[in-house]
Structure formats: structure tokens, C-alpha cells
Amino acid sequence: MLAKRIIPCLDVRDGLVVKGVQFRNHEIIGDIVPLAEKYAEAGADELVFYDITASSDQRVVDKSWVTRIAKVIDIPFCVAGGIKTLEDAQTILEMGADKISINSPALANPELITQLNQRFGKQCIVVGIDSYFNADSNTYEVYQFTGDEKRTQNTGKQTADWVKEVQQRGAGEIVLNCMNQDGVRKGYDLAQLQNIRAICSVPLIASGGAGEMVHFKDVFEQANVDGALAASVFHKGIIAIPGLKQYLIEQQIEIRPCA
Amino acid sequence: MSQNLVIVHTGCANISSLQFAVERLGYKVLVTDDPAKITAADKVFLPGVGAAAAAMQQIAEKGLTDCLKALTQPVLGICLGMQLLTHHSQEGDAECLGLVDTQVKLMQSDTLTLPHMGWNQIQVAQDSPLFHNIDSGSWFYFVHGYCVPVGPHTLASTEYSQPFSASIRNNNVFGVQFHPERSGDAGAQLIKNFIEQI
After folding, report:
1. Could you give the CA distance from residue A7 to residue A216 in angstroms, rounded to a whole number?
2. Do B21 and B191 form a contact (C-beta atoms < 8 A)?
3. Across-strand partners of A102?
4. Does B49 touch chain A (CB under 8 A)?
5. Is B179 marked active-site?
6. In CATH, what class is B5-196?
7. How many CB atoms lie within 10 A of CB A135?
8. What is the pTM of this model?
9. Which residues of chain B neighbour A200 with C-beta distances below 8 Å?
10. In chain B, whose CA is at the least distance from the CA of A204?
11. Are A35 and A56 in contact (CB under 8 A)?
12. Whole-number Å distance between alpha carbons of B116 and B165
């Protein structure tokens, strides 16, 4: 059986791992490489590095840290942030990343998903989607440039429509970040994830809201996602990965045990 | 024991991660697309991520097709690199290297998500030095949407909707569908086995 994945997410700004609450007020957590190493040793199934400034600053970002991570860890990792062209993607993959994830550039140029798929194959193309529940209209809407609150904007797209389109264009995995839940540790947005799961035939990763071990159990059992991504609970030591995995195994969820 | 290890620079591969995994074991490895250096190697890694048709085209453009077909030393194809060892891939209707007598098919499932992405367990089907000290039930990391069916060439299998070849072999030519360079301790053991046991 394929295991459900536990995925620590490391938001990277200027070469350091940071964490904000609802995408704001970033605090520095630490250096990238020792944190990556620590999580790999602790039993993480995969790591995601989001360069949260890249898309919103319109600058070429120093990605030398990708190679530094690839040298030390022996689990897969995905790099997101500022990948706007085939050449950007190739550089990141050649530096040792296993997958690349695109978010704002896919919204600006949906054709990029298709091109990346044809060049590198579906399996390494992840599309990240920042989805916000608009209580006034009772709809889920896609946001972009979420790394910088001054530039964050509503794209006008419905989340479900965009999920369907990115699959048609060849995305191999979708990370759905439920912005209302981000950083507040009240649990994943199960209702939204269930809805998206129903229309998503590629791997779906839940992001935003993990606060307790039971939240992971709930999102695997109730939304049937393929992986659960979390940041602050791991960075702040609220949940330790070996204990989480043991708990989930006891709950009969398919998990790769810690070595 | 000093060996001349080579990783074929296919141009569309996650080459660095494999290079680093070999180096973590204490070995030097050369990444090259020079046919003479590939031919002269003691062992050859053929890595790959991406689409089969694009990879075969890159191999052809680099003038490597005949070189790779003629290798007599141990070869380890990884992920797409393994699929390129077969006769044909359904992905882009690509003619492949034809070193292992099988074909690559699209994975299909009515109930499970595709591509097959994540950690899954292998069942060792045949004794092989490649799986020295690696037990059935060991976990490896997979990322692929196409697969090689189970057959006489299967060294290890994995179940996802249906069983498929996690590893194949024909004489000197080995392949693994998973990514040993990203599969923790078991993956490191497999790379070590290819270098030291074969």
C-alpha cells in the first residue's frame, strides 16, 4: 500500500526558514540545511521548500541552497517559488530537487503547466493553490502573490475550476493551501478538501491548519488526501514526527514507519 | 576498491541527487555525456525524470543511443532511466533502448490517484545481489505514471492498483522504478549493493 505522506513545509525567505501566521508577520525559524537534515532523520516522508518572496519580488533568487539540501538529505524534496520558465525548472531539478511547484506563475501563464509537463513529465510538476473562503459569497477563491501581503490579490478564479484546469494542463500533484486555516492550528479545512478530493484524480496534499495529531488522522480519514503538509507544529516542536507517525499507525492509517 | 563510476548526463534528469547519494557512500562518480567515457566505465547509472519520448530524443541528439545499447558492464537505470531500458514506452509512443525484453505501459486505476507518488513497499521476487540486505516490505520512494508489468525480468514488485515491476534485470542491465537516491537507508543500501555486490 502506498503510504500517506507527512510533509514538513519550510517557508524560505532570504535563505532562512521563516513562519508567518495567515501569511503575515514572518518570524525566523532557522537555517535551511540543518532543519532539512533534522526532519529527514526524524522520519519526514518529503520536504517542501517555498521561497515565499520569489514570485512577488520579481527578482532572480539565489537557489544555491537547493544543492546544499540535496547533498545532505536522502528523502525527496520539492522546491517552489519563482519558477516561471522551463529553464528555471531545469535549473532547480539539476540542482537536486525532485519536484518543482508553481503557484503564481501558473496563474499568470497557465500554458506553463503544459510546457513543464511535456518537458519534464507529469510526475515532477506540482501546482500550489492558495484558496481563501469568502464568507460573503460563500465560495472558495484562488489568491496569488500570497508571499507579500501588499501584493496579495484575488484572482477571481473559483478554486474548483482552477483545480480542474491544472489537472487538464498536466499537473502531477496539487497542494491545496487553505488560507483561512493557515498558521492557526485549528485543523485542516476538511469540508473544502473533501470537495476538492472529489474532483482531483492526481495526488492531493492538504496544507494549512494542522495543530494536533488528531488533525492529521482526520484529514487522511475524512478527506482521503495523499499527504498532509504542516509547518509551525513541527518547527515549534508541538508535534514530533516519530510520535505522530506512531499515533497514525495505531489509528490504522498506512504510514511508513520511522527507521 | 576504486571503481570508475559514471552517471549518464541525459539532460533531463535529476542527476545531482543521484550524484550526491553516491558521494554520501564515499565514492567518486563522473557525470558525463561523452560516449567514450561511458563505454570505459566500470559501472553506469542511467538516471531520469521526465517524459520518455523527450529523454530518448535527448539521448539521440547527444549521440548516445548506440553507446548505451552496446554497454556490457553493469548498468543501473533509475525511474525513467529504467523505463528507457525496455523496448518501448507508451508515454509518447517512444522507441527505447531495447536492453530488457519488456515494455512500459500507462498505469491505470479507477480508485487510486495517479501518478503513483510516494513511499511504497517492495516484494523481492528473485534473489539478486542488488537486493542484498534489503528485505521484502522495505519502503522506497516512487514517482511515476507509467510502469513495467511483472514478468520473467522482474527482480522485485510493488502493488498499486495492480502489481508492477519495482526492479528489472537482464544480464548486466538492472533497473529500479523507485528512486534509491531518495529512499533513505534502504535506497542507500541498494546503491551500495550495485557498486559493491555486482
Report:
1. 11
2. yes
3. A127
4. yes
5. yes
6. alpha beta
7. 8
8. 0.92
9. 113
10. B113
11. no
12. 13
Which residues, numbered 128 to 157 in chain B, qualify as contacts with chain A under a Cβ-Cβ cut-off of 8 Å? Answer: 139, 141-145
CA torsion B95→B98→B103→B107, rounded to 10°?
Answer: -70
Contact B142, B120 (CB under 8 A): yes
Taking the C-alpha atoms of residue A30 and residue A59, their distance in angstroms, rounded to an integer, is 23
Is B106 exposed, middle or buried, given 0-12, 13-18 or 19+ CB atoms closer than 10 A?
exposed
Pairwise CA distance, residues A123 & A22, whole Å: 29
ipTM attached to this prediction: 0.90
Q: What is the mean pLDDT of each run of 10 residues along chain B (198 residues)?
A: 90 81 97 97 91 90 97 97 97 96 94 93 97 97 95 97 96 97 96 97
Q: Measuring CA to CA, which residue among B56, B49, B166 is closest to residue A122?
A: B49
Q: What is the pLDDT of residues A78-125, one digit of tens each?
A: 998 878 899 989 888 888 898 999 998 999 999 999 999 988 888 889
Q: A79, A83, A81, A53: which is closest to A68 by C-alpha?
A: A79
Using the 8-state DSSP alphabet, how is residue A98 labeled? S
Per the structure block, which three cell numbers stand in for A161? 475550476
